Fold:
Amino acid sequence: MKKRSPSFPSKTIPIAKGFSVTIFESVGETVLSYADLAKKGSVALREADNFAISSSQYGFMKIERGKGYGAIGKVCSALRLPKDGEESALYLSAFTSPPIYKTLISLFNGKKITEQGLIIDLVRDHEFTDNGAELASRVFIENARFLGLINEDGVLNVDAEIKIEPLPIKGSKPKTPTKLNDKRGATGKSQIKPENTTKPGVSNYEVGTSVIKKISIFVRGQELHFPVLESMTLSDWDAIIKQLQNIKAFSK
Structure:
């Protein structure tokens, strides 16, 4: 019989979050088969089990033997619209939840950690295949770096302050251009003025005299950010929907 690696997250925390929230927004906590998970989560059927297993190991989804997987409403609702400080706590909980992560944290916390070192440990001491160890190691390191738990010396510190840096943070301020002359007015000052976010999950800033906000939409387990006007009316939304329908009509 071909050797298989023990179960481990093959998708990173932010990707699993996007998938889980997409499922929750679509069907709530309903338990779905792999085929339905692929359809509702907009992922390939061959990848649905990897998304679901990763999400369940992080604590975003639950498994019902013989039936499938379902989103955990309380967790996904908080991930969708987190309160101050809540997102970091949820991410840290996710990082420390998978069984293999608990083992690796106990071994490497406070020590220098590398992908190659993890691969060797997983293959020799935890019965992983070479390919499984390579994927598990890469995802573990990506998660730790995403949360800011690996310092500049390569040391893992799970007790460090969570600093989500590699991916855009909801509500973060966009950077003001410094050397783009075509973005400047007659005064030579930038016309783009970053503003503090006023609503959870939305980033606001000004372009000219219009206040723009970015809304989050999940597609294929990925979080996309779309700019819209802050003062959107029903007719504005209808105009957007009509244009999207026209684009959809010509899509393959």
Q: What stands out?
A: Confidence is low (pLDDT under 50) at residues 166-209. The chain is about 45% helix and 15% strand.
